[in-house]
Design a protein that fits this description.
This protein is an alpha/beta fold. About 40% of the residues lie in helices and about 15% in strands. Strand 1, helix 2 and strand 2 form a beta-alpha-beta unit. The longest helix has 15 residues.
């Protein structure tokens, strides 16, 4: 068989269900093989969006998402998505084409060193130089993408290798078990927890990846230790819990961080320093127990005293089994945390009833939370509104609030929502994008319409790059260079075959979104917003 056919069979053996991307001349043999495959090809309007979709697929399923591009400009368009997956720990495999490497009649036309380019922003990048090597290269790319810490991998398939005949056989997916933490490390963690007076639990993105929520539920219920989350750790434990203290949406100086300053121990479950720091350690500050799949990466603001390395779920299970709540040495004092809990609940109501128009962020978050079912998915782009969603949108289940606080790129919200709807076609999915971020990949409205999915897209229009404009004002600078001249979003949506809606009053928001949920198809709602009166 041809190398391209073998590649597709290897992808099928990995359980690949769909591939996102834009084929080119150098991928035509692969395209022909896909035509006869069980794999669904999702053709997008831009390679960057395809990469965001593949990364989101990986985040939601735990299996590597796959995206495809041609050589040169197609491959360079995947760079931001590669960094998005790599920093966000989302398993993804990128497949790019290349000119023939054995004979070429086009000189260096369109040729750049894609493998070298991808190397620094992936877990591995390799060119396939022989059809015989395709099965091993594919298996290794998927293994690396999925193993902890997950991320992006890249394979380049030259045109002549894709056409090369081979008798090589597919390598089947191997059974893999993650290592578990050693007993001595578990005991050190237990001793530190028992000796503490004001322990806190922090839940980060690592706990979100492997669905360790059930173990954490039991551990928190048994110990009654309060917990808070990073932005990417939201929903691992139901945030309606009486022990939830909030989300670290800022790095310092809010009510949650005033509580952190009272603690003498943070049990860090699944957070690493790639995500924006939820707290700053100092040499004479609180102790930290690092519980993660990998050892701690030491940083000036993060240097844990105990490192418990291994499968997070198993580590929590061991702690749950070994901690004895009847131990008289346990003298935890949670009085100050109860006050913080009251402040948290109060913060949810501040601005939630505000009828001002343009709509303000706290009201928007409150109304959307009322509308979304427990398993509904909100996919955020990056902008000023992300802070309020992080703090005020209670996530009831893991991966129901999709946001990026690692690369924190704009332009990912709409593609991520499309991928979420493809993975979970029966769930309600809403994309929340600022006007700036939306226009970076707005062409994917055409993809959503073509796929005939039901999707609601909220475009929050403040006619500016709002977060940077806010920061500009905070620094005392005059407004400059950040205002936008937007299109008519309603006509823009309709030109793609979507339905466009203009929010006229704040009170109209809930019935309008409900109407869109009840009407099949792709709906764009333009929501005029203001951040002027929102206090961070």
């Amino acid at each position: 068989m041809k190398g391209a056919d073998l590649l597709v069979k290897a992808l099928e053996a990995e359980g690949v269900e769909m591939i996102f991307g834009i084929p080119g001349e150098e991928n035509l043999d692969v395209l022909e093989a896909l035509k006869h495959s069980s794999i669904r090809l999702i053709v997008t309007r831009h390679e960057q969006a395809a990469g965001f979709m593949a990364a989101t697929y990986g985040r939601l399923t735990g299996k590597p998402g796959v995206c495809l591009s041609t050589l040169g400009p197609g491959a360079t368009n995947l760079v931001t998505a590669a960094a998005y997956a790599q920093l966000g720990a989302m398993p993804m495999v990128m497949l790019t084409g290349q000119k023939p490497i054995k004979t070429s009649k086009q000189g260096l036309f369109q040729i750049i060193d894609v493998v070298d380019m991808m190397g620094p922003i992936t877990k591995s990048a390799a060119q396939i130089m022989s059809a015989y090597n395709i099965p091993a290269r594919v298996r290794e790319a998927f293994r690396l993408a999925e193993s902890e810490r997950p991320g992006a991998t890249h394979l380049e398939l030259p045109e002549d290798v894709a056409r090369e005949e081979t008798q090589a056989l597919v390598i089947e997916n191997s059974y893999d078990r993650r290592p578990i933490a050693e007993s001595k490390a578990i005991q050190k963690a237990i001793d530190l927890i028992i000796d503490s007076k004001f322990p806190l639990i922090l839940i980060g993105a690592g706990a979100n990846r492997k669905q360790v929520g059930r173990m954490l539920d039991q551990f928190i219920e048994k110990t009654k230790i309060p917990f808070f989350t990073t932005q990417m750790g939201k929903g691992v434990v139901d945030e309606r819990s009486p022990y939830f203290l909030g989300t670290a949406a800022l790095s310092d100086n809010d009510f949650l961080h005033s509580v952190i300053k009272q603690t003498d121990l943070i049990i860090n479950i699944g957070h690493d320093v790639i995500e924006k720091p939820p707290f700053f350690m100092e040499p004479d500050s609180f102790n930290v127990i690092h519980i993660n799949f990998l050892t701690a990466q030491i940083d000036p603001v993060y240097f844990p005293q105990v490192d418990v390395t291994g499968d997070i779920g198993n580590t929590i299970f061991q702690l749950l089994q070994k901690i004895d709540m009847a131990n008289p040495d346990i003298q935890w004092q949670f009085g100050g945390f109860k006050e913080a809990r009251q402040q948290l609940l109060k913060s949810f109501s501040e601005g939630a009833e505000c009828n001002d128009f343009p709509m303000e962020a706290p009201r928007l978050v409150s109304d959307l939370r009322q509308l979304m079912p427990e398993d509904g998915i909100v996919a955020l782009d990056n902008g000023m509104y992300k802070i309020w969603f992080s703090r005020n949108y209670l996530a009831y289940r893991h991966n129901t609030l999709l946001l990026d606080n690692a690369l924190a790129t704009m332009g990912a919200g709409l593609p991520s929502a499309i991928a979420a709807k493809l993975v979970y076609p029966d769930k309600k999915v809403v994309a929340v994008c600022g006007d700036g971020g939306f226009m970076m990949n707005s062409q994917e409205l055409a993809t959503a319409v073509r796929l005939k999915i039901d999707l609601v897209v909220l475009v929050l229009n403040d006619e500016a790059f709002g977060m940077i404009q806010w920061k500009q004002q905070q620094m005392g600078f005059e407004s400059y260079g950040l205002e936008l001249n937007n299109p008519n979003f309603i006509k823009y949506a309709e030109s793609y075959g979507a339905m466009g809606h203009q929010l006229q009053t704040t009170e109209q928001f809930i019935p309008l979104v409900e109407q869109c949920f009840e009407t099949p198809g792709v709906h764009l709602i333009e929501v005029p917003v203001s951040y002027q009166n929102c206090k961070i």
